Amino acid sequence: MSLFNSLSAGTAALNAQSYALQIAGKNLANVNNANYARETANLGTSPLTSGALGSLSEGVDVQSISQIRDAFLDQQVTRENSITAALTTEQSALQQAQAGLGETVSTGDSTSAGASLSSQLTGLFNSFQSLAASPSDAGARQTLLQNAAAFADQLNQTDANLADVQTGLTTQVQGDTSEINTLLGTIATLNSQIARAEVNQPGSAVDLRDQRQTALESLAAKMSFNTSTATTGGQVRITATDAGGNEVSLVDGATVTNAVAFNGTSLTAGGAALALTGGSVKGALDARDGAIQTFRDNLDALANQLVTSVNAAYNPSGAAGNFFDAGGTTAATIALDPALTSSTLTTGASANAGDNTIALAVASLAHQTFSTASGDAIDGTLTQFYAGTVSGFGQTLSNLNNQVDNQTAVQNLVASQRSSVSGVNLDEETANLMKYQRAYQASSHFISIVDNLLATLVQLGSGA
Prior knowledge:
Number of helices: 10
Number of domains: 2
Oligomer: single chain
Strand content: 5-15%
Strand order of the largest sheet: 5-6-7-8
């Protein structure tokens, strides 16, 4: 090898070590970037050239940049993130609903669950009992009407609060749907860019692949999906599953094949409702149409049974006025009869001022056991039914809290496993920096020596 070839080899080595230093520095800069996959500069022997002494290498160069990724772990992280997003979104929604109840939800003794509305219901019947003891007492009459109005207002407000939470969840899903379509477009664009960048070097577009993985994990936080390798190298396909178990294509290579939409009930794509297994959309819909709607349905059943039963006892003939407005048989509409006042309040079936038969009949409803099998709207007493409703909601939230804790542990474990493979190790990269720095210095020293030799050779040739 001539001195000029040696100079060329030294320069190549200098460039190679410099590039390797840049990669080590890039890794260190991304040490806290969870979506970054560690990169390595693969150094190799330059092509051989023929000379008087046979085939000789021209030195070293960076032949490729490898990204340390495990596709299986990436898929696991994406899947666990999607499940976690669904559970945490549902948990947050139920916690909002709990706040909307205006009382603490307990999963313990059902008799103490829902103390606020339950105590108001008990107070209503106690007021009827007090009125029965003093039918002509103006104070007892006024207290009864106040307690009844307060209970109706509380039931109205509780239902309105839960409805507001459901409306908020619907708005959230609509926003998530828009973000999903944006992410699908981003992934398709990245697919196209990766395909162009890797025409001659498959796997070389490492930064673009990092961006795509970040987009995939962001998409998983919104909805569940499946990925597979597209026919064109370096690209991925994204599919979802409809309610019938059929595959629905969302992204194929550089094309968004089907955008998603929200029809008010479910997420759709390609005209089919999607069966989601994870993502914030699933969590929001599960909360909106599950536990929260069940609670509102039970409140409606409670209101229906209360209005029907009290009016039947208060106005047995149907000829006199009602206690509750007969048209308000839901939690949202329950109200006192507009014509009811302290002076028109009836305590007995006769005109006798001391007659308390009606007041006693209404008061006795507090202990009456109802049955849906007999055509009633609820099972059990009115207070038992409400306490059971709140207790059931509390148990659902408690179970969900446990699921979130367990799922978070699983997600952290999988993320840790991926980090051990793809994450940046500070000690390792610091050692690499020192290694490449020393190699760079050695290459620089080598070039200096060759340069001195060339200068000496030139001096000898000039006869100086």
